[in-house]
Amino acid sequence: MSAINSQPTFKYICANDMRAENPLNIRLGQMWKAVEEESNGILHVELMPWGSAGASKISLGKLLNNEIAFHPVSGMPLSTRIPIAAMEGLPFAFRDEAEAFRVLDGEFGNLLRKEISSLGLFVFPLIWHQGFNQMSTSVGPIRHADDLAGFKLRIAQVPYKIDLFKALGCDPQPIHYQGVLDGLKSGQATGQETPYLYTEMDGFADVQTHLSITNHRFAAFWMCAHPDSWNALPADIQAIVQRNMTQYAMLFREDMLRENIAADIGGGGCAASGGTNCTYASRVTELERTLADAGLDLPDPRGYPQLNSAGEPTGSRDDEQYARALYARLTSLEALLLSPTEGQLAAAFPLLDVQ
User: How far apart are CA 48 and CA 15, in angstroms?
Assistant: First the structure.
């Protein structure tokens, strides 16, 4: 193995809107480290998380000016430059993540990528998905459309969102993402709409009292590069980037599917319901699929028998206890995948079936 060049030939910046501990930033860090190693140090990419390159519309402007080379951009700020990009967030367009992937990775996604490219950007093939948005509030649950009347909902600073939620009766409050928590604390907004993980990770659950499962909009990032920076790379380095982009986009999808389930059951969703409706049984199929996709063995369901009033097995499975065991394994997987390399052995120990 040859030594990595101490002075990279290409030094680029990749900005994103998420916290340093968000799976997006973690996977991007792993990806660019892999690219640097595989390119023998020819390409070094510096990460700038949590809006350190500016709020989303500002960082998009910097990408268009080639001040940053790579940027996963949501369709919402892109829609301020090319309105059709808002089609990514068409309300209730997808039944589930699998359908969204099929559509946005397919011909319709290619149409949107072509339109985004017309801004003067290079757009990579796969979306980096965030999940379905849910609504949290500090003024009561959202059960019916009438509950949105006058609702001060924080939205992204884009015309599409303003028009959408005004049509639903809301009083939209445009706030850049890094300012959402302060906007909720001050009362400028009394609710927000993000995937489960962000509601928990970014502190919104701490200042909100209810979480309504609306699944009203699928959210994604489109990985973009400035063409001058991209075309300056030799073809073999581009191939390394392309290969790793595909690999880590797929890993990030697994992360978000897992993390949104974990946040819903064990974090924002459960806490926001007051902690009294924290049942797991309804998520058995989802939990089994997520663990199986990660290559993990499932607990033996015979170890979770349903008992009668006398404490004797009935011959049926206790779905709630079984689901809780699945969730415990999921959180151990989460700790493993998101822990620093030096801590992964300790994080992996609960996943070993050691008797």
Answer: 5
Residue 232, pLDDT score:
98
Residues 146 and 199: their CA atoms lie apart, in Å, by: 23
How far is 213 from 226, CA to CA, in rounded Å? 37
The count of other CB atoms within 10 Å of the CB of residue 141 is 16
Long-range contact set of residues 147-154: C-beta below 8 Å, sequence gap at least 24: 151/190, 151/191, 152/188, 152/189, 152/190, 152/191, 153/189, 153/190, 153/191, 153/192, 153/193, 154/180, 154/183, 154/184, 154/188, 154/189, 154/191, 154/192, 154/193
* Tokens describing residue 296: 């993990």
**What is the β-pairing status of strands 210-225 and 122-137?**
antiparallel
3-state secondary structure of 173: strand
| Contact criterion met (CB below 8 Å) for 268 and 196 | yes
Q: How many CB atoms lie within 10 A of CB 313?
A: 12
The phi, psi pair for 324, rounded to 5°, reads -65, -35
222: number of Cβ within 10 Å: 23
- DSSP run (H or E) holding 47: strand 43-48
Cα radius of gyration rounded to whole Å, the chain: 22
Hunting for tokens 């499962």 — which residue is that? 213
Amino acid at 49: P
**Cα gap 90→70, rounded to integer Å:** 25
Cα–Cα distance measured from residue 23 to residue 31, given in angstroms and rounded to the nearest whole number: 12
109: part of which helix (H) or strand (E)? helix 107-117
Helices 107-117 and 97-104: crossing angle, nearest 10°? 60
Q: What is the mean pLDDT of each run of 10 residues along the chain (355 residues)?
A: 72 96 95 97 97 94 98 97 95 92 95 98 97 95 94 96 95 97 97 95 94 94 98 98 97 90 67 49 84 83 84 86 82 64 47 43
Give the predicted TM-score (pTM) of the model: 0.82
The tokens describing 37, both together, are: 């190693």
In the block, tokens 């500002």 appear at 58
**What is the per-residue pLDDT for 269?**
45
DSSP code per residue over 202-248: TSGGGT-SEEEEEEEEEEEEEEEE-HHHHHHS-HHHHHHHHHHHHHH
CA distance 174 to 161: 9
Give me the phi and psi of 154, to 5 degrees please: -70, 135
